[in-house]
Amino acid sequence: MAITKALAIIAGVGPGTGAAVAKRFAQEYNVVLLARSTSSLDPVVQEIQSLGGNAFGIPTDISDAKSVDEAFKQIAAKYPGTAVSAAVFNASAGLIKKPFLELSAEEWNSTWTVNGTGAFLFSQAVLPLLVASKHLAHPPTLIFTGATAGIKAFPNSATFAAGNFAKRALSQSLAKEFGPQGIHVSYAVIDGVIDIPKTKAWLNDVPDAKISPDAIANAYWHIHTQPRTAFTWEIDIRPYVEKW
Amino acid sequence: MAITKALAIIAGVGPGTGAAVAKRFAQEYNVVLLARSTSSLDPVVQEIQSLGGNAFGIPTDISDAKSVDEAFKQIAAKYPGTAVSAAVFNASAGLIKKPFLELSAEEWNSTWTVNGTGAFLFSQAVLPLLVASKHLAHPPTLIFTGATAGIKAFPNSATFAAGNFAKRALSQSLAKEFGPQGIHVSYAVIDGVIDIPKTKAWLNDVPDAKISPDAIANAYWHIHTQPRTAFTWEIDIRPYVEKW
Amino acid sequence: MAITKALAIIAGVGPGTGAAVAKRFAQEYNVVLLARSTSSLDPVVQEIQSLGGNAFGIPTDISDAKSVDEAFKQIAAKYPGTAVSAAVFNASAGLIKKPFLELSAEEWNSTWTVNGTGAFLFSQAVLPLLVASKHLAHPPTLIFTGATAGIKAFPNSATFAAGNFAKRALSQSLAKEFGPQGIHVSYAVIDGVIDIPKTKAWLNDVPDAKISPDAIANAYWHIHTQPRTAFTWEIDIRPYVEKW
Amino acid sequence: MAITKALAIIAGVGPGTGAAVAKRFAQEYNVVLLARSTSSLDPVVQEIQSLGGNAFGIPTDISDAKSVDEAFKQIAAKYPGTAVSAAVFNASAGLIKKPFLELSAEEWNSTWTVNGTGAFLFSQAVLPLLVASKHLAHPPTLIFTGATAGIKAFPNSATFAAGNFAKRALSQSLAKEFGPQGIHVSYAVIDGVIDIPKTKAWLNDVPDAKISPDAIANAYWHIHTQPRTAFTWEIDIRPYVEKW
Q: Residues of the signal sequence (chains A, B, C, D) (predicted)?
């Protein structure tokens, strides 16, 4: 009888951090990937399968309660009774950079919708699964991908700042509430440009000036393997040449 | 010909900080008070009038765009062409203290609605007035009343933490964007219990263990009087016996 | 019978913040000024006297235990039994900006000597006087002039960073220890260039781009007047055009 | 011809973090251990040797320039021309917990002596070796073991706070100065009681309430393996039950 591998559930999977984290965690777990579109999910699922891993992509609007609910029903149906060992909230709203007085109400809400409501819905869905999981190699872990904008607000980007501060606050509150239950909640301050297809043309004067998504994935994996005597809540990650 | 006094517009006026700030600023300005109910507004308006000041209360739902818009139309109608010298965002959502997994989506949004959306609507309405105001005794000022929960997230209160972090982020982004235009934006970390009617029974073992609203008002007034060479963004205020 | 005015004791008096603070506090108190040289002290003492205030300058090496001890003996002799209402530690080491590997041991210690040892000696001398003072108009107050370098370390200035972080730590520990005794301890983050004779040539492209020492002094005075229900530990002060 | 393994140099080696870090890094490197006494060094050296590693202990007073200089001469003599891949500053002054006014000048200086001067001397000795090292598996790394007291000052422990803030400042300044040269400088906020012989009797009501030194060592090793595209400056580490 085969022993079922535990799950890792990753929300926000594009060609950068999400894909790298999925591949890293797929070395040990069955991974479930949530993203808005199948075009984001399919290449990652295929790559993981081709490497011998097991991945399941579910198109999901992370900021929509019904969509998230539906996704977790699919997870339960496909992996009944399977422990969930790790969850990563990697979804992020796009940066809106414009004068404050030109923001529409929709723009003001846009970061909150993903980083606030999306993070809330994902956390409420996944934390009960993490709490219920037993006999795992590592403490159940929930990691939030954060940003410089989560600790420092810049001019002309009030929306992005507010949503990112809110996500960090959520992660800290959850770390304090669920830590004593043995759940490891972390927040990663990604402080720099990530090396993904759409940033290919940026910062090429200096070698290695962009953050490797694989390095972020390794950091997340390390955090996941920390025993409960030594949980990290916050870690910053930036290229060696970054000014800060 | 009478010289019209400049305005101070204060959102969030109850029997505590809002009333004290209104009274303090009414010593120099005509004050406009926004609060949800006339029962919050009327006693403050009457007290200020009885002291010889000028106050105008407008029932307003600060998190509703139409209501805020309507309030500022009333202000424009009553005080046409009048400079706005100061604005205070003192509205705050109530603390919801319960396990994260028991929060409803409505509860999750409740702090954001006031501290995020409300602060956004008020700022968008009042900043153009501050920017346009000239020949003032002090730089036009926008102060946000904040809380410990704006810099530190506690367990079992993720909602409150997220909304308060977001409000602080907004204030920092605005301080950086509007500072160079000569507008002074500040955030006050109110770290302790405020001495208001509903806290009468609390913390009475030690004298002066609760924050005097008048002392907060004096701090706001001091901030307002700072010249543009010496703006304060953040100030913390706590009773001498507070643990922190 | 004349009522003796309480004292304010200010360490670190040059032509900038120290002089401005001395003049501001001299409006209410007899001020004692400590600085290394009489050439720093004399003009400030004379200006205060000419304005009808009372000032007493004592040449003091604030980082030398004997010198500090001697200074406080002189204070006790000149103002026997007089309450001390306020103390300001405004001494600061000079910025050493050079590659870390070129620092000498003397240079490494230079900021600590003033911001660490000097702040310690001054605090130990003045806190007992503050604690013993009764019947004052405002809570006894000890304010430390700090800097951006107290919250953020820059490259090529490790010495300055270490000493300034240390001074801020001292102020926070003292705020927490002496606050419950009714003593108000504060730290001011001065984030920008102060407008003093030696910075006359700097930052003149934009008006008011340098911090007015008088504005710092007014902020200190405001902090001093806060009642014990509403103590501020930390306040930041920066010009409206400062990037941060 | 045998290829010489690179070195890891660890300052501050007792039975806790230092020993665990030494053992972890000895899996890949020859380790050099600095501690005041041979009684601290010998058991660690012997354990590493017994596990097949290579360790060299040098009795050193890390806050004494001559002693540090002598230690690095011994390292150069024993391992001529050998690359240094990692350095860990794990020395720490003891906590002095007493009222501020009872501190002696010696006590005031005691944390600075180790965390300030010791960290300076060690950094000045080891950074040139890290900068000169080439062809390493991982970027040359300098990690400082820090503490809660490095980010938060507590009452009745001003000395400890000042020295720990200073050490953190040094690490941040060095991270910014040497990062662009490819050197990875980190600071670890150890927020809790470490599980070592002298804390055996503490915190035993709850399992795993103390930090495992091996877990700290694993975190340091992870940081060391980060590529230069993804350096972590600060990481916090605390037991799951810690209040913060």
A: none
The owner of tokens 């990650």 is A237
C148 neighbourhood in chain D, CB within 8 Å? none
Determine the Cα angle at A15 with ends A10 and A20, to 5°: 55
Per the prediction, chain A carries an average pLDDT of 96
Say if the Cβ atoms of A232 and D227 lie within 8 Å: no
For D131-158, give one letter per residue: b (16+ CB within 10 A) or e: eebeebebbbbbbbbbbbbbbbbbbbbb
Q: What is the mean pLDDT of residues D40-57?
A: 97
Q: Which chains touch D (3 or more CB pairs under 8 A)?
A: A, C
- The verdict on B161 touching A (C-beta cutoff 8 Å) is yes
Distance CA B242, CA B173 (A): 29
Report pLDDT digits (tens) over A152-187: 999 999 999 999 999 999 999 999 999 999 999 999
Pairwise CB contact (< 8 Å): D208 & A195: no
Burial of A99 (0-12, 13-18, 19+ CB in 10 A): exposed
| Amino acid, single-letter form, for residue C31 | V
0.90 surpassed by complex ipTM: yes
* pLDDT value of residue B3: 59
**A178 neighbourhood in chain B, CB within 8 Å:** 100
Cβ B62 vs Cβ B114: under 8 Å: yes
| Residue B67 touches partner A, C-beta closer than 8 Å | no
Nearest CA in chain D to C148: D169
Q: Is the pTM of this model over 0.90?
A: yes
B27: left (phi over 0), alpha (psi -120 to 50) or beta: alpha
Q: Coil, strand or helix: which one is D154?
A: coil
Closest approach of B30 to chain A, Cα-based (Å) = 25
A142 in contact with D, Cβ within 8 Å: no
